Amino acid sequence: MNTITYQLQLSNSTIDVFIERKKIRNFYLKISPDSKVVVSMPLFMGMDKIYEFLHAKKAWIEKSINKFQSMQVSNIKDDISNGGTVKILDSQYIVFIYESKENKIIIDGFNIYIYSKKHQNLKYVEKQYNEYLQETAKDYFEKLIDKYYPIFSKYNIVKPVFKVKKMKSKWGSCVPRANHITLNLYLFKASVECVEYVVFHELTHLLYHGHKKNFYNFLEKHMPNYRVVEKKLDFEASKLLLP
């Protein structure tokens, strides 16, 4: 795949745009939080067309870059409005809301597209997004439990049931006697390695109920860097958990 670098002049700066030729029919434009701009274009398309496309999109590109640069990663509150932002795991996404006959949400690059039957009713759209976030978080957490469960099945631990809900002061909890784990929805806004640590931490409580030496020995055996991740998690707690 050939990549061409094109310098695009914005109002106050010049940026590099990375142009990739692919076996596609239309242009695709992506902007990442570090302000990297990538455009995918059809193999057969002439370069003059891509230059026209980029100049037509200059205002939108500049607005998106400014939005990313002004973001505060510590802000947990999702802004469900056109041009607003939401945070999922390690990434921040710009929100686009469109009218649609069916409700659906699609993430493409660092954009999140919300198609809604009631696109002008922001409370309805916010509810739609929250339901999507809840379902997506649950699916993600379940995959992590499936990933680590084989370690615990060797000890005759039954695969736990779990639920996801908003909690104000902790990332997760475990009730061993009920074989039940609860994970904080806001954990879905933390770093990936922190999410994995919390899931493994709560699974470990099914084997060792308290925070004694054997508990931490088990953590260290399977997650040798857990102390580093714990410190990172403590920092993220101050940013992501509600006061």
Q: Can you give me a brief rundown of this structure?
A:
With 243 residues, the protein is an alpha/beta fold. The chain contains six helices and eleven strands.
Q: Would you mind describing this structure in some detail?
A:
With 243 residues, the chain is α/β, with parallel strands linked by helices. The chain has two domains: 3-70, no CATH class; 131-240, Zincin-like (2-Layer Sandwich). The chain has helices at 47-56, 58-70, 122-153, 192-204, 213-222, 226-240, and strands at residues 3-9, 14-22, 28-31, 37-42, 85-88, 91-99, 104-108, 111-116, 161-165, 172-175, 180-184. The strands form three sheets. A four-stranded mixed β-sheet has the order 1-2-4-3, with helices on one face. The chain has a four-stranded mixed β-sheet with strand order 5-6-8-7, sandwiched between helices. A three-stranded mixed β-sheet has the order 9-11-10, covered by helices on one side. The N and C termini lie far apart (48 Å).
